[in-house]
Amino acid sequence: MNLLYPVSLVLLLPALVVAEVTSFNNCPQFFAKPYSQVTFPTIFHDPIYKQICQRHNNIYEYATLYNTTNRIPVYSAYKYFGRTSCTRRSGKWFIEPQLDIPDGSPDMSPEGPNIGPKQARNKDYINSGYHKGHLYPIFQVLQHCTADATFTLTNGAPQVPNFNQSAWKKIEIEIAKLLSTNPNCKGNPVYVVTGTVPGNTQINGRVNIPSYYWSAYCCLDDNNIPKMSNGYIGRNVINSNVDGPMVVAALDAILSDTNHYATLFSVFGGKC
Ligand SMILES: *[C@@H]1O[C@H](CO)[C@@H](O)[C@H](O)[C@H]1NC(C)=O
Ligand SMILES: *[C@@H]1O[C@H](CO)[C@@H](O)[C@H](O)[C@H]1NC(C)=O
What we know:
272 residues; 7-stranded antiparallel β-sheet; two-stranded antiparallel ribbon; 5 helices; 11 strands; globular; binds 2-acetamido-2-deoxy-beta-D-glucopyranose
């Protein structure tokens, strides 16, 4: 079909369809810039993966790489703004219209009738015995003082309730405390990436139950020189223990091995 169009028009088309399910290049502000270079975590480029610039009420808040086959995020990346005292939230979970409807709203939205094959739905979680675990944690400040933007199913994955409420919660709080008090991080640009490693089972036959949750942060100074970084990883099971803090290179090595992504993976491009 494209052969019928003048070449110049064909070349123009990709630029015209800039939308929110498109490319992290549209929201580089959520990724660490060690040595002043925007550095994405490893991006998988197969079409089953979608790069989402998470938009809520017209404002970008963070970014997510989403696996549309497993229907869970691989990771969410965000800038750290401190622990929130503004927990304004409705508690309703959004979906990402453009995953299923190419010309759908670029804002995360309430679930509608045509939401289907490429993402998790609220009903997948009902009576599943699993929590919708947040990758971008609820209790951290989003730049615009609302927790609502973390409540999107593309930022959630099935999490064992006991893991959500004890081992992982402990780590989320420990990381947040450190980032708010450590002189290498406090007041400096801080970037966090939180991800999942898929498991072998699903809820509702549709949504993969991750085998692991992992997280890493990178604190930079005003000249974008990395000052401090660490990684953590824990099994998504009852009575889990989270491993960490460990250097990010050690987390990269774990994530790259055959029991995890089984392909070279780096959270901060080896620069933090
Ligand atoms: C994405 O989902 C596919 C299909 O289940 C799976 O084979 C692949 O490992 C997943 N990728 C990641 C990075 O989780
Ligand atoms: C997971 O734990 C957090 C507390 O760390 C809580 O706010 C959240 O509601 C829990 N998730 C679910 C679905 O209960």
